[in-house]
Amino acid sequence: MTKKEVKPHIRFAGFEEDWKWQNLEEITSLITKGTTPLCKSNNGTVNFVKIESIDNSSGEITITQKISHEEHEGNLRRSQLKENDILFSIAGTLGRVTSVKSNILPANINQALAIIRIKSGCLKYIKTYLKSKAVADFIRKNPTIGAQLNLSLEQVGNIKIALPSEKEQKQIGLFFEQLDNIIILHQHKYDKLINIKKSMLKKMFPKKGSDVPEIRFKGFSDNWERYKLEEVVTEIVAGGDIDNNLIREKGRFPVIANAITKDGIVGYYDTKYRVEAPAVTVTGRGYVGHAKVRNVNFTPVVRLLSLKSNHDVFFLENAINTLKIVVESTGVPQLTIPQLSKYEISLPKTLVEEQKIGSYFRNIDTIITLHERKLEKLKNIKKTCIEKMFV
Question: Do the domain assignments include residue 287?
């Protein structure tokens, strides 16, 4: 029988040798995990890393919790982090990976993360390999089923790693490090734009108790006035049921449900629609009160509320998104037409000012969408490269 070659689909020029399999425990000096801190006060000087601190794509660590130096040196002593430690999630969300940089030290971890301290091989290569399909398949086949999925430290040590020469490891590791740096750069740009928009929403609409915004376009000085939404809109429509006989994957008129992802679009009708654009939709169940402009004729379904108005729709979208929606129902949050109708928004005296504000936020949203798509494209490139460059 011919021995199966252990080679990736894509590799750098100059490398032809088969890769060799080794258990993770053979190339590490330590595999351990963290512990739950005794003190929950979040007061201290030592960074505390949890699964949610780690970005799933780039591995960037964001610190949101601290522990005391006493705990770090006491009951959490075994899980003190060192530079270049690999962190690998082993409870709940399995297989999230990053490595420790000196700028977060001193630092510690909780019990949902394992520390993998390597003694041979290239750190950047091994860290990225732990996100490969081979490791994902191992995780899928080997979790311990309990209150939540988890992997034991013994199972982590038994993960098989395909290793090329150290020279090839370094070249692959450097490639993915550079790709991660690009992803982090674009993530920061995207996050900055989101924060700019949040800040401007607060400043370009009047605060509670005020009748003028903090920031205005030149040439406008009149006070704004407050109106109930029922005084501002010409029609509010509640979404109905989907017509399963008419809905298609592609078509002319979107069918929009009560959701945020994919703009809420769940399909299309070819020949009919219920609401004529332009209009604004508002989510009425779960994550309630999220407004979105619709520029194509559509049909709302499943608790989605649709507003028609003679006011600028982009202004109206952002005015509604500045509201603090209070859910009056018990159980799953819901927003009804009568409830939404009674909410008040502030309006400038002229349609021209509305249009300028609406256009400003429309432009910001366009830039945000472009960065979001670029970021998603980079993440997909990384995912494809991991699939093709590892075995």
Answer: yes
Domain presence at residue 278: yes
Burial zone of 66 (CB within 10 Å; 0-12 exposed, 13-18 middle, 19+ buried): middle
Percent of the chain with pLDDT over 90: 85
- Residue 130, class by beta-carbon neighbours within 10 Å (0-12 exposed, 13-18 middle, 19+ buried)? buried
Contact 355, 177 (CB under 8 A): no
Instruction: Identify the domain containing residue 180 by its residue range.
Output: 168-216+349-390
Q: Is residue 15 part of a domain?
A: no
CB 35 within 8 A of CB 50: no
CB-side exposure of 367: number of CA atoms within 13 Å? 14
User: What is the spatial distance between Cα 86 and Cα 251, in angstroms, rounded to a whole number?
Assistant: 48
User: pLDDT-based confidence at 1, cuts 50/70/90?
Assistant: very low
Record the pTM: 0.85
Among the listed residues 110, 56, 55, the one whose alpha carbon sits nearest the alpha carbon of residue 81: 110
d(CA 42, CA 48): 9
Same domain, yes or no: 211 and 124: no
Omega before 143 cis (within 30°)? no
Q: How far apart are CA 130 and CA 128, in angstroms?
A: 5
Pairing of strands 344-347, 225-228: antiparallel
Tell which residue, 48, 124, 46, 55, has the closest CA to residue 93: 55
Separation between Cα atoms, residue 41 and residue 271, nearest integer Å: 59
* Amino acid letter for position 59: G
Preceding peptide of 37 cis, ω within 30°: no
Specify the pairing of strand 279-283 against strand 291-294. antiparallel
The per-residue pLDDT for range 142-196, each reduced to its tens digit, is: 877 766 889 999 999 999 999 999 999 999 999 999 999 999 999 999 999 999 9
In this structure, are 138 and 207 located in the same domain? no
Domain count, the chain: 3
